[in-house]
Amino acid sequence: MRLGRGAATTFPRNLVESDCIVIEGSNMAECHPVAFRWVMQAKLKGAKVIHVDPRFTRTSAMADIHAPIRAGSDIAFLGGLIRYAIEHEKYFREYVVNYTNAATLVREDFKDTEDLKGVFSGLMDYTGDPLNGFVGQYNPETWQYQREADGAAPAPAPAGGSFESLVRANLKPAPVRDPTLQHPRTVFQILKRHFSRYTPAMVERVTGCPKETFLKVAEAVTANSGPDKTTAFCYAVGWTQHTYGPQVISCCALLQLLLGNVGRPGGGVLALRGHATIQGSTDVPTLYHSIHGYMGAPSILKKHETLADYLKAETPATSYWANMPKFMVSYLKSMYGAAATRDNDFGYAWHPRISGDHSHMPMMIAMADGKVKGMFAMGQNPAVGGQNARLQRRALSKLDWLVVKDNFETETAAFWYNSPEVKGGELRTEDIRTEVFFFPSAQVGESDGSFTNTQRLIQWHHKAADPPGDCRSDIWFTYHLGKRLKKLYAPSTLPRDEGVKALTWDYDRDTPPADSRIKDEPDARKILKEINGYDTATGAHLPNFAALKDDGSTTAASWIYCGVFPAPDQNRAASQNPDPPGGVGTHLGWGYSWPANRRIMYNRASARPDGKPWSERKKYVWWDGQKQEWTGYDIPDFPVKKAPSAPARADGIGLDAHSGTDPFIMKADGKGWLFAPAGLIDGPLPTHYEPIESPVQNPLYKQQASPVLKYWKREDNQLAAVGDSRYPHVLTTYRLTEHHLTGVMSRWLPWLAELQPELFVELSPELAEPKGINNLDWVRISTPRGSTRARALVTRRMRPLTINGETVHRR
Amino acid sequence: MAEPMGFFTDTTVCIGCKACEVACKEWNQLPSTNGGANTLSGQSYDNTRQLDGIHWRHVRFIEQFDADRHDGRWLMMSDVCKHCAHASDACNGCRDCIGACPFGVIDINPVSGTAQKCTLCYDRMQVGLTPACAKACPTESIKFGPLEELRRKARGRVAQLHERGHTAAYLYGDDEKILGGLNSFYLLEDKPEVYGLPADPKMPSRNLFPASMFSGLGALMVGLVGLLSFRQRRMDAVAGRDNV
Predict the structure, then answer these.
(1) Domain ranges for chain B
(2) Euclidean distance between CA atoms A41 and A669, whole angstroms
(3) Across the interface, do B40 and A750 touch by the CB < 8 Å criterion?
(4) Which residue from B minimizes the CA distance to A43?
(5) In this complex, do A795 and B35 lie within 8 Å of one another by their Cβ atoms?
(6) Which ipTM did the prediction report?
(7) Each residue's pLDDT tens digit, A270-282
(8) Is the domain defined by B5-201 classed in CATH 2.60.40.420?
(9) What is the model's pTM?
(10) Cβ contact (<8 Å) for B47 and A61?
(11) Is B21 exposed, middle or buried (0-12, 13-18, 19+ CB in 10 A)?
(12) Which of A43, A757, A797 sits opposite B40 (nearest CB)?
């Protein structure tokens, strides 16, 4: 949200170039041991490694500094670092002035949490569907930039024809800037005031991290950031899985922008994805709120009636996103093929539109209420992994049918006879009407396909052997399900079924495989071609997303992947040409990294405004004055021929509106956003709120928890009140190296199971002894929503923290 | 003759992931503890507990924390057969090795019924592959290669650690002081005993020479006594004859 793309800005291999690596919200050594190799190599070269985490884990054991904090207090810790950088003038001023929106002025009527006791201006009651779960909502109007003049009324969008005039009509006057950063309404001054109360003493009060340790971290991070040095941050689900998850990550991005660590080697914000191709599953998404390539899902809650309405509402006139009509029309052509024409809005009306929050939790709530009839669970095990799993297991029993496709019979597949609710007598198998279908799944080596990993790298995997018995690949299952559904819909004359009938669904192999007994496995390369895009007249593969058109002459299922398969004999996902030893380590010939095979995003920022590297040591992408183009060790994330001196054009759309010194090409103003006027529904700046269940009152603000968090208040989803003496401890769940996620893929393997054979709960001797708990004793862990039994592992790696003057135990 | 090869295990970069244990078991097809129904040991994250006939690699976890947590560290170390330079390489199935190994590395594999231990993935080495554990190690804590090269690297690493203030770092088993040299040696940060290694291991065979001396002496004594008794008998006989 602050940088422009929903993905890691860098790649694990590049951590070798870091002078300091902060791991927070992640247990990287345990959960990403292979990527952690680069952390260890950086350490061998002399980099400082810092782990900020509630527990002393295998990652902490490798770190130079372990800063213990209470779970859920990350924004207070990061906010403390932001304040430290500003107060001690240790931010990277030239970077901040030129590459971020620090100098931009915000509207006069904006009110900060400092003014409104912990909330921002624009807070309202939530008026939408209760199923969406919001406890409040913001109107973000007052968070907007102050602009040069009120813009002239935009020209009306013309009917039909090119979409350019429609995009141009969205052009706004330029924002007002004060490059001296002195104006009280500059983003920089707002930021300074906002974080002024995040002092080291306050960090200690909120997080429990001793002040001295916090200051050691602050000194290391700021000393290792600047023209000659870079610091990287690595995070994972320890940040994302909070009610204010996006704010934690954006707080980190904010800090990294202040320190000038974005777009530069050894810097960045590295999102560590916890599951094979989880990045891929948001790029070509299984998300409900976005369609392929991070375009917003058409919604009945917005003015999205026609394609022109949608494009007008969703397309910013400036930034690379001004090309969205090309991406969207190409997407619709991919969906509906020849049936999509200019006259029928390229089939836009057939496309499903969302009506609210259709994510996991509201879906399970609706299921518990009997409103959802069927479910497919593929690669997911909510009976174990879901929050409030008891509610989720009970919800499954309300289904008419459940399809589980997995390698093993999961707890989700077995809920009807094996769940704690059935065993405890709460549910009876004979009363559960859900019909459960279990489909055995092929393993990765048993089908062709691709993975997109944590660094946006698309890598092909080749089939090595046929799966046994009835096991089939996910694409086989999905493809044949689609074919059968299309057959069922074929006779329908209902207008609502037109979309299914028109859907492109043609991935049969041209010739059945001779070396396989499964003759009807779909052709994964045809699917990759569909994702990459092609010319609709000739069928020729498209070379890159610059070739996309908004007139229906091109397709691309996911525009960001365009270029991965530029010719029938060039599957770049399968490319395996590493750099020779001693190279710069970008390995551009290995796999294909979206967008356009760029490895570090926003890498224009690795050069000074004039195009020269910030320092010889941190040289990465720079302007070659002779050739008059950007060059370097990576693919420039910038128009290659746009000179550093190129001015922004006031009347320009797309990247013409950006100057040669605007590295954040996906943002409307080309700047990294220290302050987010749009895109974050829970506030333009990160603010420490307590987790929804917390043992303490918020020491920072009167506002206890996020005013716009999502909570489904119901009998079977109770919360512990603040300071409830029945629930005094902070409980953190986590993964171990030895097991993968809910254990579906590891608990069945004896070689892995013997390494961590039983469920355990780690607790400090200070918590265990007064309760008479000995090592290996059985203990019961309870929340207001459920309870479980586990063996006690009493260890000094756990320790009580002092929060706001009180001792808080963690486990 | 080919260069002697071995392991150097730098415990300071071991992240305790146990990939070495699993890779070893997978390559060598070793069974899991108790047929897969293991129990929690309660000893940090170590649940496989020891080196034996079915665990040829074993990661130790040593927690060292003050009561006030001011000082704390969690040491991890992937242990393996030390591949003593002067070990016998012939096996006739007598199982005497189990008691004889000074490091307690060898034990019975309950599936095969024979005494087993790390072979350095002999079959992989035959075709130029690195042993499975070293190949799987994500941080190169386990290094495999020609011993001379490993020793040079290891000494460089110790010097680097000393330079950075980690003055406790030292090598265990890189020279002849321990049993004339180990072909699998370690970089440690604490006393050997902390890692379950003997500070001054001895081969049972060290007693062979003194024992053989005793045996010789015993034989001599038996011989002497025998001689004496024969002599006595003869003297008695002579005396008897005289008496006759």
Answers:
(1) 5-201, 203-244
(2) 37
(3) no
(4) B13
(5) no
(6) 0.92
(7) 999 878 888 999 9
(8) no
(9) 0.94
(10) no
(11) buried
(12) A757
